[in-house]
Specification:
It catalyses: 3-dehydroquinate = 3-dehydroshikimate + H2O. Keywords: Amino-acid biosynthesis, Aromatic amino acid biosynthesis, Lyase. Pathway: Metabolic intermediate biosynthesis; chorismate biosynthesis; chorismate from D-erythrose 4-phosphate and phosphoenolpyruvate: step 3/7. GO terms for molecular function: 3-dehydroquinate dehydratase activity. The protein contains six helices and five strands, in the order αβααβαβαββα. By secondary structure, it is an alpha/beta fold. It has one domain: 3-Layer(aba) Sandwich (Rossmann fold), CATH 3.40.50.9100. α4 packs parallel to α5. The longest helix is centred in the C-terminal third of the chain and has 15 residues. The N and C termini lie far apart (38 Å). 28% of the residues are buried.
Amino acid sequence: MQTMVSRPLRQLHRLRKRRTEYDVHTSIMKIQIINGPNLNLLGLREPEIYGGQSFEACLGKLQAAYPAVTLTLYQSNVEGELINKIQEAGYGSDGIILNAGGYTHTSVAIRDAIKAVPAPVVEVHISNVYAREDFRHHSMLSAVCRGVIAGFGLDSYRLALEALLEANKK
């Protein structure tokens, strides 16, 4: 005896079959890392604050630790270029890790770009911005980001990646 299933129920069944949780070990996720002004100088600039490691070395460690995740790095000192990349990645990736550098405290335009995209964005800071100058204590971006991680050195990027992996499981 053949069971008749309505078209909407068949479609729902297909959707449920397609929906799967991200498994770090078997699924590919695409995460865009976006670094703002002066972060191209990591390892050289103020090592007492930012450490002596380049971001390329950090990225290599992340790629080795998370082989099932496609990590792409973009860095620019130009606000408009960062906005363009947020818009592009916001519709083409599973998440964004953003260190907007000094633009964190000043850029309404970057805030609006984050708010306009569906991909979750995690704001990252290498240093503890609350232990630094007063002007660094306010972020224009935090309210529109999925979360904020600060003060753990370059390990802040790994923590942000872990947060995005967990968020994508839900």
